[in-house]
Amino acid sequence: MIRKLAALFFILISGYVNAQQPGEDETGSWFMYFGTNKISERFSIHSEAQFRFYETTSNFNQMLLRTGLNYHIDPNAIATAGYAFIDTDNSFFEFEGEINSKEHRIFEQFILKNKVWEFLFEHRYRLEQRFLDFGDYTETQHRARYRIQMTLPLTNTFFLNFYDELFINLQDDLFGQNRLYGALGVNVTENSSIQIGYLRNQFQNAVYDRLQFAVFYNPDLRGLFKKKKP
């Protein structure tokens, strides 16, 4: 019995090693900016830029630019419609035969917030329509995402932030990926903060470790849109 279990364990481990995807043994990094730019009592503009690397400071992987129009139903509910452009470079030295891609993406999103004791929760529901260009051919994909996020204030300056996000494909294989994240945050000013954290990005046959460096800046731009009195 012990020999059979040992043999099964060896087969599973061997399968895992052989199934590892290129770049799994590297700790990559994501450098990110997020902004919520208030333009009226009910509306704001989402701004976002991300630069992702296969290694901590080298081997470029992906650039993501995203924007959207937010409608603030109330302080705890926000609806968003927006657009994103994603440029992906798969020419990491371990990859062979991978195809680079450019993606135009439309998304619809709904956020709900609530508080339990000192914990701040945020539920994000998102639908995405993805238009991918691989050079020789194009493809359209659809995806749903759900993220639950929890923030715990430690002091007026420091806080902890955690989230788990599940990606569901609406075609082919149901499971797309899962992102598990934890970070230490610092409130720099009333409308800006930074976060330094770790992301475990799991796909069907691969798991990637990523360091994350994020800047959040949420200026109130309503003064720019007020009509000046003659």
Descriptive report:
It is a single chain. By secondary structure, the chain is mostly beta strands. The chain has a single domain (26-219), classed as Beta Barrel (Lipocalin). It has helices at residues 2-19, 222-225, and strands at 27-38, 43-53, 60-74, 77-88, 101-116, 119-133, 138-153, 158-169, 175-189, 192-202, 207-217. The protein has an 11-stranded mixed barrel with strand order 1-2-3-4-5-6-7-8-9-10-11. The termini are far apart. The relative contact order is 0.15.
* Tertiary shape: globular
Helix-residue proportion: under 10%
CATH 2nd-level architecture: Beta Barrel
Strand order of the largest sheet: 1-2-3-4-5-6-7-8-9-10-11
Mean pLDDT: 87
Low confidence ranges: 2-20
Compressed to H and E, one letter per element, the order equals HEEEEEEEEEEEH
Count helical runs.
2
CATH homologous superfamily title: Autotransporter beta-domain
Query: What is Rg?
Result: 21 Å
Report the sheet-strand fraction. over 45%
Count of distinct structural domains: 1
User: Sheet with the most strands?
Assistant: 11 strands, mixed, barrel
Q: State the total count of DSSP E strands.
A: 11
CATH topology term: Lipocalin
Q: What is the CATH top level name?
A: Mainly Beta
| Protein structure class | mainly beta
- The end-to-end span amounts to 90 Å
Descriptive terms for the model:
mainly beta, Lipocalin, eleven-stranded mixed beta barrel, 2 helices, signal, DUF2490 domain-containing protein, DUF2490
